[in-house]
Amino acid sequence: MHKVGIIGLGFIGKMHLGSLRRTGMAEIVAVADKNPANLGQGAAQGGNIALEGDLSLDGVKTYSDGDELLADPDVEIALVALPTSLHKEYVLKAIRAGKHVMCEKPFVRHSEEGKEILSAMKGCDKNLMVLQCIRFWPAYAKAYDYVQSGEYGKVLSAHFVRNSPKPTWSWDNWLLDNPRGGGALVDLHIHDVDFVNYCFGKPDKIEAAGVKLPREGVGDIMALYTYQGGPVVTLHGAWNFMPKFPFRMAFSMSLEKASFEFNSMVDMNLHVYPKEGGELVPELDSADGYLLEDKYFLECIDKGVKPSIVTPEAALESVVLGEQELAAMA
Ligand SMILES: NC(=O)c1ccc[n+]([C@@H]2O[C@H](COP(=O)([O-])OP(=O)(O)OC[C@H]3O[C@@H](n4cnc5c(N)ncnc54)[C@H](O)[C@@H]3O)[C@@H](O)[C@H]2O)c1
To answer: What are the backbone angles phi and psi of residue 68, rounded to the nearest 5°?
Structure first.
């Protein structure tokens, strides 16, 4: 069993408390949060996705700050689930403390911070993975496999959507504070930016337009990525939808020999419409992307290999693409 300490036990920290245990490969030995209410049993749950698994803190050491957790020799892996503007500080501290590191997406608030982390990682024999969960989400992972295999020919166009009501759960409302959260562009839309980068690489041209809100930054963004000789890709991310609007992630792709459709408001399947024959609904892993990314990270440690599905370099590229979109909006 791998011994994990979670720094930041808000929405996504609790999600990993449950998903790491669901892997059956990890024991949560410690958690750290500066808000004592989050260290109590059954603490309130925020977020836009239901939490799953065992969320109890029985037998788990609780610390009021991340430094104490990192000084704990029982902790083999540190999972950083703090507000984005604190990722750099705690990822660097965790590396220096000799821990394997899992860091929530986005890797960092600004790309310069990511470059510092990559320098600090040089020669480091520990693993660092940014938790870009969409690369592991079964319908997305299946579409990625089809694209890479070429089974249905080249991708001609693709469209990605991520819409949600405003996130109101965060500690000190940091998510709605642009210097700390980066708005919907850096926090929400980055999932699709990262997946597009994973599937198609860096585009040759980026165009973008959106809605900037006074305190929180970009609330709504539409981006157009063009690849010479490759697909044209649109991405829409917005979190200024009405409070009762259900969180939605969706995509469609048009390939030479098939069309793909995924819409979380309908179901979690990938629907494939080949040129010939009827609709196919490939069987997918029944687990969610959180469990699958956690399991993958632990398996990489067991095998003594660096995670290759999300490298720190790739996670940094996605932050840079987000910055290029912001510049294109101006
Ligand atoms: N992968 C996903 O789907 C997903 C979903 C939500 C959030 N996230 C990411 O996870 C990170 C956290 O987001 P969240 O929604 O869980 O936020 P949150 O506000 O719910 O949780 C952050 C927690 O950190 C604690 N904290 C703040 N400063 C601290 C400090 N110095 N030391 C210790 N604890 C401290 C807060 O008390 C809070 O409990 C962000 O980077 C966010 O982008 C990822």
So the answer is: -65, -40
Please tell me the residue having the least CA distance from ligand 1 atom 43: 187
CATH topology of domain 135-286+317-329: Dihydrodipicolinate Reductase; domain 2 (3.30.360)
Contact 221, 325 (CB under 8 A): yes
Span 247-302, pLDDT tens digits: 999 999 999 999 999 999 999 999 999 999 999 999 999 999 999 999 999 999 99
Per-residue confidence (pLDDT) for residue 46, from 0 to 100: 65
- Cβ–ligand 1 distance for 131 under 6 Å, the answer yes
Neighbouring CB atoms inside 10 A of 313's CB total 11
The architecture that CATH gives domain 2-133+292-310 is 3-Layer(aba) Sandwich (3.40)
Q: Is 200 within 8 Å of 231 (Cβ atoms)?
A: yes
The residue ranges of every structural domain in the chain are: 2-133+292-310, 135-286+317-329
Distance in Å, CA 226 to ligand 1 centroid: 33
Strands 26-32 and 61-63: parallel
Neighbours of 125 (CB within 10 A): 8
Q: Is 9 in the pocket of ligand 1 (CB under 6 A)?
A: yes
Helix (H, G, I), strand (E, B) or coil at 319: helix
pLDDT of residue 54: 83
* Per-residue confidence band for 45, with pLDDT thresholds at 50, 70 and 90: low
Q: Contact at 8 Å (CB) between 262 and 143?
A: yes
What helix, strand, coil percent values describe the chain, rounded to 5?
Answer: 35, 25, 35
How far apart are the C-alpha atoms of 17 and 58, rounded to whole Å?
Answer: 12
Q: Which two tokens stand for residue 18?
A: 């449950």
Q: Is 202 helix (H, G, I), strand (E, B) or coil?
A: coil
Site of tokens 């892996």: 77
Question: Does ligand 1 have an atom closer than 6 angstroms to the CB of 135?
Answer: no
- C-alpha distances in Å from residue 20, one per residue of 12, 53, 141, 321, 326: 12, 9, 20, 30, 34
Q: CA 285, CA 139: separation in Å to the nearest integer?
A: 9
